Amino acid sequence: MTAKIELKGVKKRFGPKVVLDGVDLRIEPGSSLVIIGGSGTGKSVTLKSVLGLIRPDEGTITVDGEDVTHLTGSARDRVMRKFGMLFQGGALFDSLAVWENVAFGLIQGRGMARGKARDIAIEKLAKVGLSEDVAFLSPAELSGGMQKRVGLARAIAADPDIIFFDEPTTGLDPIMADIINELIVSTVKDVGATTLSITHDMASARKISDRIAMLYGGKIIWQGPTDQIDHSGNPYVEQFIHGRAEGPIKMAVKA
């Protein structure tokens, strides 16, 4: 079976700093993979490389078997139509009503008529548990959890094949985080999308994934089914998932 997304030997450095040092990753159609790892380990760079926002120095990235590593212009736009994205912190436009945020890609990216786009936005908001009256509020009038729901509605607005989740529970209390995780699982199942997420929240990683990969030292040092992560036998994974100060991962601490 052709992988939905595959990275082979992907490397990226910024000046002297090596961020990705040969990342190999395969995501099967319909699966949900979560990349875990500490801050600054290259999770976001990996995501941005797949999206074409960052170009790798070496390696290849394929989507549905097509090499997208060096695509530009209309070819890149065509591939990007397969993706939906839930950004860290929601990333909503304060100057736009909620429905306009949800429909932004439909109107700006696809030239859809505003009336039709508004109807779709209201439909997607309903899927994430928000009523029609919320559609006409501004993002500033919403709680953090509601903003995250709006971000999820925007991510699924165009019925994407692939959805990326960037730290989906950041800034939420544990109960709201669990609600958002449940919503992600049910929404993804409803849409039938393949998902790639990055997070350092292990509760979220366990709930929304069927596979987990750990990024450390610029490489994927472990990957496997979610239910096997507690038996990884990898000391780096063990330290990370249990949040231990002692172990092979050394955190830089400024005096």
Tell me about this structure.
The chain is α/β, with parallel strands linked by helices and 255 residues long. The chain has a domain of 152 residues: P-loop containing nucleotide triphosphate hydrolases (Rossmann fold, 3-Layer(aba) Sandwich). It is built from 9 helices and 10 strands. A 6-stranded mixed sheet has the order 6-7-8-3-9-10, sandwiched between helices. A 4-stranded antiparallel sheet has the order 2-1-4-5, covered by helices on one side. A hairpin with a 2-residue loop joins β9 and β10. The longest helix is centred in the last third of the chain and has 18 residues. The radius of gyration is 18 Å and the shape is globular.
Residue-averaged pLDDT, rounded?
89
Structural category:
alpha/beta
For this structure, the CATH topology of the domain at 1-82 and 162-167 and 192-255 is Rossmann fold
Shape summary: globular
Largest pleated sheet: 6 strands, mixed
Question: What fraction of residues sit in β-strands?
Answer: 15-25%
User: Roughly how many Å apart are the termini?
Assistant: 51 Å
Strand line-up of the largest beta sheet? 6-7-8-3-9-10
The number of helical elements comes to 9
What is the CATH-assigned architecture of the domain at 1-82 and 162-167 and 192-255?
3-Layer(aba) Sandwich
Considering DSSP H and I runs of 4 or more, what fraction of the residues is helical? 25-40%
